[in-house]
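Posting here for the record, re: manganese (II) ion.
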Amino acid sequence: MARRIRVAAGSIRDPSDDILTFAAQLGCSGIILNTPDLSGRTPFGSSPIGSTYWTKPGDDDAPTHWDYLELLQLRTRIESYGLRLEGIENTPLYFYQRCILGLPGRDREIENYQETIRNLGRAGIPILGYHWMANSVWRTSKSEPARGGARTSVYDHELGRNAPLSFDREYSEAELWENYEYFIRAVLPTAQEAGVTLALHPDDPPVDSLGGVARIFRNLKGFQRAMETIAPAPNHKLDFCMGTWAEMGVDEMFAGLRYFGARGRIAYVHFRNVRGAVPCITETFIDEGDVDVVEVMKLLVEMGFDGFIIDDHVPEMPGDTLWSHRGRAYATGYIKGLLRAVESMTA
Ligand SMILES: [Mn+2]
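Prediction output follows.
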């Protein structure tokens, strides 16, 4: 069987010489950037992963779209290391936060988002990952003791449910769906014209509501509604986050993987593991946790998945860097070994 699945590096906000060199040394075929800072602003603080920080609508100094030349320079920089720029996941949240909440000004945000999509297409960057979390990813602990003295992240809804409202009021599930439909139907045709695939990440954690804002991408049914009823298109796919899907329950994860994998609707995979499901989940090393990762890789290969895989959140190992070079070297090596073994067994 021809090898079609690529292993890339991810969670990269700043494509520094150090990170790109490291990714090349690990044998990654490319990278995906996450919320790159193209304008000197830092909406997510030092790390976009697991952050609970987000900006509120109304910050008018903020840039509102990404420019063509910036994107092109990003791509040529990454290619100069022998790596492919697979895509970018997550614009800053404030690029489209009024859209999620259905606030005045959303049409202007949509125009800007469309411009970002066109510029991605012009710059030859084929994927834009996005999500529909108005208040980002939540964790109630980032210091849970893990294997051998590592630390990891936990979301426990018993603690998270005490959060104050994130915005001025509660936002219902019906509103979030209505706003989603308005947004995706406006931007998806632009993406199609531009040759860009939009890839949807699940709500992490996948609970009903957080800080008063409903979460709609928390089960298979929600994804089916988005991908088949509201916005079915060949360039509308999933950023299949194994970790977040497993937070819904391992059975739901496999159901989603089989359903969308068989239909060629998975653009790329966040390959990570967790223990437990909502209301309480703990992130784990890739080789522990509830998900049988061998089974996942076998399914991907059998279904003819031809996208790429990245590691995702990794436990914090003492002495590691902010980007987690140690943790990522372990996860990426594990993923590459697993892929090689499964490919050779199914050849
Ligand atoms: Mn993820």
